Every structure is written in C-alpha cells, then in structure tokens.
Amino acid sequence: MDIELVEIFPNSVKFILSDVSLSYANALRRLALAEVPSLVIEDVYVLRNTSPLFDEFIAHRLGLTPLKYDIDELDLNFRDKCDCGGIGCNLCTVTLMLSKETDAQTTTVVYSGDIVSAQEGVEPISSKIPIVKLGPNQALELECMAQLGIGKEHAKWQPVSAMGYQEFPIPEINRSKCTNCLACIDACYRGVYQKVGDEVQVTNPLSCTLCNYCLDFCEPGAIKIGSNPSKVIFSFETNSGIPPSKILSKTGEILLTNIDEFKKTLELSLLEKDEKE
Ligand SMILES: [Zn+2]
User: Fold this and answer.
1) Which pTM value belongs to this model?
2) In the prediction, which pLDDT does 271 show?
C-alpha cells in the first residue's frame, strides 16, 4: 500500500491510496465516520433563559457546535466506561459555561465565542456561530457538559464530513478522433480540460469525478474516461477540531483493534469447538 498526499490543510485532506480495493477504502471511511471519537456537548443545565428560544432549542444548537480539543493532551475516558460510573468527573467530562444578559436599552446575539470552558484547550472551533438573539432585558445562563462520543451513537459526534473516495480517474483524449472543438472545456464543471496552445489537453486529471458528462459534448470516441480500480482518491474535511492526519491515524488504530478482537474471538471459538469434540 502506498499513500500520496495531494493536498493537506488544517481541516481537510486529499490523498491517493494505491494497491487497495474499494472495499478497503470503504472500511476506512466507515470507521472514521462512525468510530473515531470527538468531544461534543451532551447535557445542558439551564439556569436562566428568558430568550425567545425554548431550552431544548438552545441545547440542540449547543450540541451541534463543534468543539476543538487536543486529542493527545486531553486524554478523556468515555463517560460510560469511566471509573466514576458515568456520573461525570474531570476524567470524562468537560464543563462549559455560557452567561449573557442585556439591559433595557440593548439587544445582542449570543455566539459560540461566549462559551467559556473550564478545561484549557477546549473551545468552539469558531467563535462566530450564532446561538440566540437576546432582546432588551433578556438573559441566558447555562452550564454545559461535553463528553466523548462516536458517530455510531449520534451524528453530532462524527468528527469528519464530506468524506468520500473514488477510483483513480484516467481521462484521455484520442487525437485521431478529437476535432478540437473545445466543447469539453466548458462542459466539465471540474476544470479537467484546458486549452494549451491550439489544442485541448487534460491538465487536471485528479479533479475528474468519472461523471462522463463531457462525453455528451464530443465526437464519439474523442474522450475516453478510464480508471484504475486498485487506486483510490480519498478526501474529507474535519469538523471536530481534530487534524486530518490525527483522524487517519486514529482510524488505523481502530481498524487494528477490531482485527485483533476478531482474531481473538475466532481463536477462542475454535478452541471451544476442539474441547467439545
Ligand atoms: Zn468520569
């Protein structure tokens, strides 16, 4: 297996995975979406709410506010597996406070940036997510409990979004049939083709999504969209404040743990079968 990075940003990545099957890529996708944990607000204690929104409405918005934390620094336990028995302690729960009020003359918007965490390094990934607008003489005072969870339990814990893969595309122009009409340049919304000198050329093959839309605009056989099934282009964005490289290494760890568990269970059941016979 080989990994070639195409691009990496603080919250997104695109890479080429070689010598793997599509089902292997799908296993990675599903593990990252469903089993890599992230930190999200789960319980909200409303101390005061005279805003126009119901308590439940605000709690829902807070639950969908992505939190940033250092997955290496903050070694949290899953709450249901913590020694505290799931009551919530500083080993499994992060407390966040939100308090804002207006006087008779002012109105204001409560943003995610108003959430104050008791744990250093934990904060919303953006301070500009609006939560509720307060009119004159209104107040909002809350205590929130954030905990680790996985996407399998609830989609709010999915640490990634727009996670997908596709076969490695190989768009080719057959010079003997191409009339150089340049129609494919406008037809391709991904900008795969460009005019270089006097003729059209494939300048951005990795952007091809194998949609074959360009074929409708060309002479038959002028463009051939091939693919390499043992190579996949994988891309995703993170929405949990965890860097993409960390999500991938965590996915690998989970895959190994799952295989290990499968191996142990298999060995045990074979042993039991032998003992019975
Ligand atoms: Zn605990």
Assistant:
1) 0.82
2) 92
